[in-house]
Structure formats: C-alpha cells, structure tokens
Amino acid sequence: MEIIAGTVDTFSADVLFDMARYRYEVFVEKLGWKLHARGRLELDEFDRKDTIYLIARNPDGEIVGTSRLLPTHQPYLLASVFPQLLGDTPAPCSPDVWELSRFAAADGTRLGMAEDPHGWSLALDMLSVAMRTVAKKGGRRLISASPLGIERILRRTGLSMRRMAPPVRVDGQLLFACLIDVDKNWCPRRDRHADAIG
Fold first, then answer.
1. Residue 151 DSSP SS3
2. How far apart are the first and last CA of the chain?
3. Does S-adenosyl-L-methionine appear among the keywords (predicted)?
4. pTM for the structure as a whole
C-alpha cells in the first residue's frame, strides 16, 4: 500500500480522474451525499491548484483512499458550506490551520468502512500522513466536519482533539466540526480503530 501527497500539477490526469471517480463511489453512491457530480466524478470548487491531495493505492494501483487538505486562509469547505457547525466560533483563517475533507479509506469493492478491517488501518495511516504533510507546510491543527460517530473513533486514537460546537443535524445526519492538534510524530497503533472522515 502506498500513500502519496501532491497537487493537480504533480499527479497525472489518469490518477486525478480515478480519484474523482473514487470520491463519487464513496460519497455519492455509498454514503448518499447530495453532491454536485458530473459523469460519475465528484469534484467541487475546493479542488484547486493549491489543494493538496492524499491518495492511497493498493499494489494493483487502484485507489483505496483519498483526502483533501486546504489551508484555512484560503476558501475551504467547512467555512463556506457548513458554517453552522462552528456555532458562535469564528471560522479559522490561518496558515496554521488546515482543513481535512473528502477523507475516505476503503477498498472500492467493499465500500462499507465498518465492514472493512483494512479500511480502519488505512484510515489511521492516512491521518498520520495528513498530519506530517500539514506539519511540513507549517500547519499546527487540522479542522474537519465529520459525522458524529467519528468523534468516538478519533478519541480512541489518543490524538488531542476538541469539538468546535455542538453537533448539528444536516440532511438527516448529525455532523460536528473538530480541531485536531497536528502531531507529526504520531504513529497509529494497530489495536485502535479509525473510520472515514467526510
């Protein structure tokens, strides 16, 4: 398994196409999110030249995980689309805070993360790579909007995290925003579990 980080300028068109198709399969088909998609590809206005992607591929080269990293001093998903998840807290706007979004880790043939033990391990590895990637850019925290069940999973990782505000029901699902302190030396323990972060 390999996890690679890069921007649209560092990935081939084929890899970016496969990533957009994987995101469609996970977020639109499997999770039922109402996202704008074209031709079974999921991309939005936050997929820009400065966006950093993490892409996990299995030994056959198939994408089995992805996430998106954006500095919060540029437009980002949580502040633009889900500001209600922040409550009365102002949206972060700093090169020290990076948004983690479109995070998923699952074999495309078994998209149910809870049913995929490899997805648990991969999600932890991807979170570790995300923190190292952000740390190299000077980031000190990750912010993310996630389903409420992710909070329990994140707490089990031993990472320092906190809610930004109480959870809010959006399209029938309880979501919350959280801040995660970046620990570039954090290494996931294999006896802990993680899931996908939206």
1. helix
2. 22
3. yes
4. 0.87
